[in-house]
Amino acid sequence: MFPLPQKESRAPATCLGSATTQDVVSSYQDGLGRESPGKPDQKLPGLYGVGDPVSKFSSDSSCLSSRGRVIKWFWDSAEEGYRTYHMDEYDEVKNPDGIINLGTSENKLCFDLLSRRLSQSDMLRVEPSLLQYPDWRGHPFLREEVAKFLSYYCKSPAPLKPENVVVLNGCASLFSALATVLCEAGEAFLIPTPYYGAITQHVYLYGNVRLAYVYLDSEVTGLDSCPFQLTVEKLELALQGATSEGAKVKGLILINPQNPLGNVYSPEELQGFLGFAERHKLHVIVDEVYMLSVFEESLGYHSVLGLERLPDPQRTHVMWATSKDFGMSGLRFGTLYTENQEVATAVASLCRYHGLSGLLQSQMAQLLRDRDWINQVYLPENHSRLKAAHTYVSEELQALGVPFLRGGAGFFLWVDLRKFLRQGTFEEELLLWRRLLESKVLLSFGKAFECKEPGWFRLIFSDKTHRLRLGMQRLRQVLESKSQETEDVPPPTTPRTPVSSADEVAFACGRRLLPPKSSLGAARGPVMMCRTETL
Length: 535
What we know:
The longest helix is centred in the last third of the chain and has 30 residues. Helix 5 runs parallel beside helix 12. By secondary structure, the protein is an alpha/beta fold. Strand 10 and strand 11 form a beta hairpin. The protein is globular, with a radius of gyration of 23 Å. The strands form 3 sheets. An 8-stranded mixed β-sheet has the order 1-5-4-6-7-8-9-3, with helices on both faces. A 6-stranded mixed β-sheet has the order 13-14-11-10-16-15, sandwiched between helices. It starts with 20 loop residues before the first helix and ends with a strand. It is 38% helix and 13% strand. The chain folds into 2 domains: 152 residues, Aspartate Aminotransferase, domain 1; 237 residues, 3-Layer(aba) Sandwich (Aspartate Aminotransferase, domain 2). This is 1-aminocyclopropane-1-carboxylate synthase-like protein 1 isoform X2. Pfam families: Aminotran_1_2 (PF00155). One of its GO terms (molecular function) is pyridoxal phosphate binding. Keywords: Pyridoxal phosphate.
């Protein structure tokens, strides 16, 4: 399941259950790397790509299996910034010169509210059943509360059913489990880019499933387009292209609200994407982990579970967790809702390895049923704090003359630092990222999200004011230095939108455009700070 790159490939097994071990080991390269008879003469330029997570794999470890070497390689290659941060973490007293983490998507704004709620007496219940093996789908009392919670907050047209709920220790486990039970080794999911890059590992490490990219870009081509806009046409072209490259696509992954863009899909867009999947008999995994972190009311968030009709309920699988919306990324609670009982049972079987303790299940049930605290205390204050932090960082970036997409959901801004690259390459992007890390501020670079345009970064704003202020000071210092270095360097030849003015761009986006107050040189290109508010 975790193959090493090989010079020669062999034909893939037709059925995973009947394949030999060696067939499975070599299938990753066969399933997606070979040419298909119907492959066109020329690839559709820039519209799609088929990922190869181990294309740069190398290992000299002799004590690990091939699977073990690939797993270790992922850790070594993909966690550099996170590991560096934990070795030199900022602390106001103990390590004031440590790294400020504006790269990891966590909500650090509401610990006071959460600690008080989680310390109340109803959270401390211990009963014999909580110390024994549970139903692997989750205790019935928890699945009932999850169904009620999702029915209420997703505004489902009919009450959701507890038997369609499975609980696991977070969305990473859910992605891994769903990829394993829905796909054969070597098959693929379509996913629009940029996307939360860890999904690459989630679907590959157990299931040997790859991602087929639907490349989106910042170009605004007319009055009905927006930066990084997903359309059904782009899905169709990417599916056609990935199939022509030999990929067998089994599903589509949607993130709503979107990470890292911070926007949301309208009901019409969701119906279009789900209709596309139904036509091609594709599963759809919808990650709604930020659904209660929409702090701009004008966005009008809509859950897939709130649609009047799902085109293909048996192939639609929705996940949610407390990691983001409740700032509990360390507690590891996630849930799957699917009407497909075969999928639910298969995922539940994997809960033997990804389940929750009985005590945590009891706590989560108590939390989810406390509608008064959620609606009257937590959500209003959380949204207020997110909005204030978002406003502060937005104004700082505007003062720096840095363009960005200003969404109203999640914990992040998608920031355009292309003008600070000497050349428009991913090598230059990585050099800028390292320069920031050396200056003790961690951001996430665009290549980690498979963004096709070098120079975009994700910046997290859901942190305390003193850390945000120091992080933005360090960012400013680096960008001022880079601005001097790139002053005489010609701008990169990245395609730009043909519209002629900021007002036209704003109208094209259907959003308000707030021009940055440039203190570090003019922004290259008119894609500016778009607020995702419908005019």
